[in-house]
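Table S7 (text form). Paired inputs.
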Amino acid sequence: MKPEDIIELQPPKLGPMENIFVPAILAGLGTTIMHLFKSVGGNTRTMQYPEERREDMPVLEGGMDIQKYRGVHRLNRDEQGRVKCVACYMCATACPAHCIHIVGDAAPWADREKYPIKFDIDELRCIYCGMCEEACPVDAIELTYEYDIVGLTRQEMVFDKEKLLAMYDKTAARKPM
């Protein structure tokens, strides 16, 4: 490396007010006060659940749609009513929470090699990031708008293949995300 290729960087000199972070604190307080006055005007995103539901909320000013949220998963069906998944394990690999567990087997159909004999998603462990949906090459897994699921035990919140297909049957009429 040549000496002329080296660039020496010097930190910027801070004034006495900047050393005690007063301008940064005042800028943060200004942002907080600005958001406070916006929410007083009735244009807030806070809702009183369960009295108010997301489905009943109007579209906010500026065209921002609050229906952009992720609910529980579903496994989609193909045209013949079979599970669309080809057991490629891409969703389980992409999942940062490691909540998807698949066991694949040879498919009895000629149009694919494998299909899942077991497909489980632990909804309590899931962070609803949508990485599984993005990773799926055949659009077999999808996040729905259903968010009000209840389970009294951990095992009730582990959705197996039948439960995920039942969620598809329940939400198929509603437009996907």
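Next pair, protein 2 of 2.
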Amino acid sequence: MTNLTPATWKRIVRSYRSDCDLTPILLAPDGQRVMGEASPLDTLPLVIQARRHAIEESLRWGEPYVFLLAAGVISWAVALVDGQTLLGGACGGEVTCEDDRADVPAVAQHLAPWGSAHNRMRSYLQALPVWPQARIHTAADLLSETVYAAAPWKPTVWHKNRDNATQQRQIAEAIHQGKQVPNRNWPIAEERRLLLLLRAGDQNGARKHLNQLLAAMFLDSPRQAVLQARVLELLGYLIRVAIEDSPERVSLMTAHQQWIEQIIAARTFEGLSHVVRDALDAFLSEVAQQGLTRTNLHVRQALDYVNQHLTTSISLADVAQAAGISRFRLAHLLKATTGQTLLQHVKRLRTDEARRLLETTPLSCAAIASTLGFADQSHFTRHFRETAGITPAQYRRARRLTPA
């Protein structure tokens, strides 16, 4: 099983219970309880199967998995992984949802229909806490953080799967947005922006921009051979410019040959996307190993500050102070290194976050405007339309009408 000592598990339970007032249980890969307080749910085949499925889905997506045990009764689980090996799972408990109250008698009848088991189930369900949906997802994330902070594991495949899932979501979003743009053209100029982000050491920004480029490639032609050729051309461009900048980076040419083989071997667009993302990360690592200049360090500090303060007012003076240079020097470095001014960079990030909130939360446009630091809803709407081409309300309606 998990090779988790009882002492370590007790620390996890104490920490999680302190934060969430729930007691987690340790699960085997098949969903059976291994450690933790027993409940009437533990021996029910339906619950064991649901927990096993939750562990598998958590591993697949590289994140906690929230699932429905019965109408109005919600639980969540985290896959426990060391390297490439699935060790088991942790279940964070059960609650009833405030937005969809459980019919306790009906749920008890569904889970344990006969005799004393039904009575115990009914008493157990009636004692469950009632939570809003947002708190459930917060507790699921906290369970993941608590377990992996305490356990001695390196969840390599968990992180890999999370990166894959994040990439596919970003590509799907970019494809959807691209379909709404009339007379779209292949964004050749955007390749240079990707290089600028790499030079700045902005891995998250580079990854997201790469995914937008991959979406544009797919929209331009979904044929696998064409996609492979476009990816090879993109990597070749990055390596050529990098070597022109610093001839000592000739080692990139050897690595490029290896990526060529993997790109040619990719049989699906998803597999191709994973390969090119890994190549991008390796490229960034190679550039960093050649020596991070103070210019890149200042830019990275500035970008980190912006990411951490996206929901507050951001001024050039504040960012320059965080980076340890003058406003004028920072403005020059940002433009030269990323191809954008500070204002343009902040606008792009806030629009991306606004899209996420419009898609994944019920927050009103006014609430999103306030959350992201806009002066008012009118300012937010004007900014969003300038960047995305449509109003926030139109964007939300379009996403809701799009088939999953």
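The longest helix spans residues 156-179.
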